[in-house]
Design a protein that fits this description.
The protein has 113 residues and is of the alpha+beta class. The protein has one domain: YaeB-like fold. It is built from four helices and five strands, in the order E-H-H-E-H-E-E-E-H. A hairpin with a 2-residue loop joins strand 4 and strand 5 (92-102). Helix 1 (7-22) packs antiparallel against helix 2.
């Protein structure tokens, strides 16, 4: 089993540090970086263990068919939705991570599922 983070996902993660800091979710940029690093490690370690669900149609329209998502709850108020594809290559299961959003931004798409 292998977790592959696509470049578009890595771009989201890099940008997210600045967004969280600039919107004053964190007082220090280093704290925002640590939060995102921790989330990244959690995805890398636990994605295969999480319950997966089919991604809402909205995301399949944006990122293509065959998407799933898993929820990573980071606090009482914030859940991160990680969108990915799964496929086998040389008898190895590959998780291809494509996108990430949270309940503060895109909850309306996940609540209808």
């Amino acid at each position: 089993m292998k977790i592959v983070f696509l470049p578009v996902f890595v771009d989201i993660v890099v940008e997210l540090v600045s967004i969280l800091y600039n919107m004053k979710y964190f007082s220090y940029e280093a704290d925002a970086q640590e939060y995102i690093d921790e989330l990244y490690r959690d995805i890398e370690k636990n994605l295969p263990l999480k319950q997966k669900k089919r991604a809402p149609q909205y995301f399949e329209t944006k990122y293509g068919k065959g998407l799933y998502y898993a929820v990573f709850k980071k606090s009482k108020r914030t859940s991160w939705y990680v969108l990915f594809r799964m496929f086998a290559e040389d008898d190895e299961l590959i998780y291809q991570v494509i996108h990430m959003t949270n309940n503060h931004v895109d909850a309306k798409y996940f609540l209808t599922e």
